[in-house]
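[Q] Does anyone have a clean structure-token version of this?
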Amino acid sequence: MAKWTSKNMPPQHGRTALVTGTGGLGYEDAMALARAGARVVLAGRNPEKGNKAVAAIRESVPGAQVRYGKVDLANLASIAEFVAEFQQNQESLDILINNAGVMTPPQRRETADGFELQFGTNYLGHFALTGCLLPMLMNGRNPRVVTLGSVAARGGKIDFGDLQAKDKYRAMPVYSQSKLACVMFALELDRRSKAKGWGIESMAAHPGISRTDLLANGAGQNSTAAKMRRWFPFLFQPVWKGALPTLFAATDPSAGGGQYYGPDRLGGTRGYPTLEKPPLNALDKQAAARLWDISEQLTDVTFP
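[A] Here you go.
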């Protein structure tokens, strides 16, 4: 996969893709998939931002089959409403990219359902969305689910005694936990798909360190991390390149379920897609099964 780019993506005509997150990586994912011929739904909580993204893709890709879908991953009722609307328009889904997220708000915040915001949005929201869409994925053609991890997941630990960070909130460790949970979910979903014959390939990917608006949206425009992205852009790779591991996982014939993909240079912080080892804690199958059971209880979404 030496220097794989979206130009190497196989044609996606006849395939339907759902991407969460209307800016940054999600926008780049949707653009590339639309350019390859896929029908794309770009989903997020802000209709103005989402419709602008769709308009920009249509302008760049004449004839693009792309539309906006409203979903707030920090609200389980919104997820249920989105899936109900989505099911009215089609019966199957071929690609699901669980990309949207929030990063390191300085103060602890909660979702509409009382979950810590990062854990609830980045992980539990995507867990619930995937579970609700599972029947449509099972009807898909060679369906794939790609869930976004992060270089931060390497230092993550699942604190089963305080999953919602009520006792102690530290922004970065909580973010790392949420991203580790995403990787664990991706690997566990693939194990369960193989064991139960769902026919879905699930994998994780991460963008390295890219110039997205994630930090600015979470920690704020005046945070040190956000300023670093503005003042020292050479330290971060462009967003289009950060999206490549996800696009490779979602579309390339050589990508496989249960794998983890990221950039190939400087410790996985930049470069072109490559296969890499998941964080050590993500390989704990007992912890992954425990997290899965807890997640079903918290979200009231049960996989068959």
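[Q] Thanks! Anything notable?
[A] Residues 171-196 form the longest helix (26 residues).
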